[in-house]
Amino acid sequence: MKKKILVLGCTGSIGRQTLDIIRKMDSRFEVCGLSAGSNEEKVAELCSEFNCPGTVFSRDGIEGLEALIKNSGADIAVNGIAGAAGLKPSIFVLESGIDLALANKETVVMAWVLVKETAKKHNANIIPVDSEHSAIFNLTEKIGIENISELIITASGGPFRTLSDDELEKVSVEDALKHPTWSMGQKITIDSATLANKGLEVIEACRLFDFPPEHVSVVVHPQSLIHSLVRTKDGILYAQISNPDMRHPIFGALAWPENSQNYLEKFDLSACGEMTFSPPRFSSFPLLKTAFDCAKKGASYTIAFNAANEAAVQAFLDKKCGFMDISRIVISTLSLDWSFQAASIDEILEADRKARLEAERQLSMLPGGIH
Ligand code: NAD
Ligand code: MG
Q1: What is the mean pLDDT of residues 274-286?
Q2: Atom of ligand 1 nearest to the CA of 11
């Protein structure tokens, strides 16, 4: 029996790479539904290529997406939707008892308690696709989470790893969109340059693996060959190594719980050159420390972190603020009180809306900012 796969965000970086795996491994996997934000022509093409019964676009509204998910008959859904828009689809997947291959880290950052409870209630599994969390997930499955004392998340450091603080103030959108090791959607590429992505991933790791932030750390590893490490209680480190190719974690999630052969190029240790490691520059990339603080404070802080960052990144992409304004906007938005608990989906989305409004208000006060 082929595994039936629902691909949410099928035109994006994660979506396209998922379809590449299904295309090349069509004796094991088949597409049972596709969704995308836009680009109907491309989706129509994919629909006919994969002989897919159902498609949905953002313009069909969230009800359209809910119906697609609930009627899909999928064994597993890949959520490759960008940003907070991915949260409700994740909930619909889990409510349908469908396993969730989760690339959309915002789902975890915004609503982990709700998401975890929904998965439990409907007997659905959440399999991380973010490469760092996929690495840790694989390591915990092999080593046993009870034997692990620390999670170490690797970061490429982004394209501006070595720039001075003055140079960082002046970087352009075009420069920020050139990621050294990964080819990804625009939002996550900017987040990789500010280290907000690593911040989101710290929060994601604390929640997925139920680790306090004090036992999670980040190391800069520009070659992106080690995808993360765990330290066992006896002090030993275990790393997961592969080529920097998102199809590895996507395949791992699609095939889970099996660990089986695939067509992806195997990593050649003797040809890889050097691997280097250094601590992150917390003072030049302040959003990483901010994310650790939000992970410690909990409540609605992580929702506000994500929402303010999404608003500020959009403003930067629209050339309405500078690169370093992104962190200033997020940090000043977080100076409001976010200590209230947002438990239901409506409360979570209300906190998200409130943070976006505040970030937009702050953006409008920048010299030459949004009006
Ligand atoms: P992307 O921008 O390339 O693609 C996003 C997809 O979501 C597109 O298909 C788009 O049409 C769809 N979409 C956008 N807005 C939507 C909306 N409002 N409703 C429904 N669909 C919508 O993004 P990406 O790089 O593939 O990233 C997707 C998610 O995966 C993000 O949460 C990102 O953080 C995470 N992720 C991506 C990578 C990567 O290598 N690209 C790695 C790790 C995690
Ligand atoms: Mg990642």
Answers
A1: 98
A2: 9
